[in-house]
Design a protein that fits this description.
This protein is mainly alpha-helical. The protein has one domain. The chain contains 6 helices and no strands. It is elongated and about 60 Å long. The mean pLDDT is about 95.
């Protein structure tokens, strides 16, 4: 057996730990943006939200995303794990790429909040708050059910 095959259970565990941490941040940051909209521009509350958003993104979300991608790529490189003819992994990969794009979108919007702007409306952030849930559902179904 190859080293990757021998380490498969550990690689899968590390990947899942990263996914959980990343998803927690993807669920929470848009909610922070909703609440950030409610505070007056400038001032202590604004500064508190800016600090929370920055620490969440840089301290948890960015490392968790890198961790998730690293161990996900190791899983894909493990012999016998992915049937390259199956369609489910294409849908999963597309969903993970969209999740990464959403992460980058959130990071860009954080800079707008930091500059004391309000990049989107509070209502728009409530809608955007649902995007990671939809993508997560697709990813989990593709990996567990493998419908095609």
């Amino acid at each position: 057996m190859s080293l990757l095959a021998d380490l498969y259970p550990w690689t899968k565990a590390m990947h899942l730990i990263g996914v959980i941490a990343w998803m927690a941040g993807l669920f929470y940051l848009p909610r922070l943006y909703v609440n950030h909209h409610r505070v007056p521009r400038g001032g202590e509350e604004h500064a508190r939200f800016v600090g929370m958003e920055r620490r969440l993104l840089r301290g948890i979300m960015n490392p968790a995303m890198i961790w998730t991608w690293t161990f996900g790529l190791l899983l894909v490189a493990t012999p016998g794990i992915v049937d390259w003819r199956a369609g489910w992994w294409h849908a999963k990969l597309l969903s993970v790429i969209l999740m990464t794009a959403f992460h980058m979108f959130l990071a860009a919007q954080r800079r707008g909040f930091e500059a004391d702007g309000r990049p989107l409306t509070e209502r728009a952030w409530r809608w955007w708050n649902e995007a990671p849930t939809v993508l997560m559902i697709v990813i989990v179904v593709m990996v567990i059910v493998k419908p095609f």
